[in-house]
Design a protein that fits this description.
Blueprint: H1 3-10, H2 17-21, E1 30-32, E2 37-39, H3 41-49, E3 58-60, H4 61-66, E4 89-91, E5 96-98, H5 100-105, E6 113-115, H6 116-120, H7 127-223, H8 229-240
Antiparallel strand pairs: 1-2, 1-3, 4-5, 4-6
Length: 243
């Protein structure tokens, strides 16, 4: 299987090769490792019905997508325009690998068309590759630093969260203890006040009774009151003077 076929299968874009010849676009459900072709449900049944194809191994597309198959990817790259052709040349002008048919039809006017082998020579030591590797290295360091910063932030966050929870728990206990002490203090003061009230209450009752008795006596004195002789004499003298 070529890399292009593998990519199409992973993207669920692979169509039946047999139907594609007849310009019919049917979704493939299996891949034959011998024929190196994909088949739709109908073509899959037809493929299995021939005795001379009985030894061909068919792998489910779903199995390939899940990565559970032992299917090997060919190092040979198929042409995007002509999947049945193998990429053999590289157009420098368009920065595109292509097959010989593409080179003849679409790139015959291009000045820089070379073989894949020549295009690949010195690619590891080229300035473009060196620059790309450097950028990838720098980007990798940046990503690594970001990941480490995120991890450090998460660690600090977890530590801070735990400290806050502990502080809240301590504060909660202190508040509860303070309220409990305040409650006990109020209970003691209320009990003491009740005791004092209970002590005063009998005295108040006695005092109230005494006041009632004195009130009764004063009422009796008012009823039995007789003016004294001095007051009577003063009254007589005043009358004699015409007052």
């Amino acid at each position: 299987m070529s890399m292009l076929d593998k990519r199409a299968i992973q993207r669920s874009e692979k169509v039946c090769n047999s139907c594609q010849i007849n310009n019919e676009m049917k979704t493939a459900i299996s891949w034959c490792t011998i024929c190196e072709e994909a088949f739709c449900e109908q073509c899959d049944k037809c493929h299995k019905s021939f005795n001379f194809l009985a030894k061909h191994k068919l792998i489910s597309i779903n199995e390939i997508q899940s990565g559970n198959s032992d299917l090997k990817i060919s190092e040979v790259l198929s042409c995007e325009e002509h999947p049945e052709k193998i990429v053999k040349v590289y157009c420098v002008d368009h920065s595109k690998p292509c097959c010989t048919l593409c080179a003849t039809l679409s790139h015959r006017k291009c000045e820089n068309v070379t073989s894949i082998e020549n295009a690949a020579k010195g690619i590891k030591k080229s300035k473009l590759t060196t620059t790309l590797v450097k950028k990838l290295y720098e980007r990798n360091n940046e990503i690594t630093e970001i990941i480490e910063n995120r991890k450090d932030s998460m660690t600090k966050f977890e530590t801070t969260s735990e400290n806050i929870i502990q502080e809240v728990s301590i504060l909660k206990r202190e508040v509860i203890d303070h309220l409990n002490k305040l409650e006990e203090k109020i209970k003691v003061e209320v009990a003491l006040s009740k005791t004092q009230v209970n002590k005063i209450s009998p005295k108040m009752t006695i005092l109230e009774n005494e006041m009632k008795e004195e009130t009764k006596k004063m009422k009796k004195m008012a009823i039995n009151f007789i003016p004294s002789e001095f007051i009577e004499n003063f009254k007589t003298s005043a009358e004699s003077f015409g007052c």
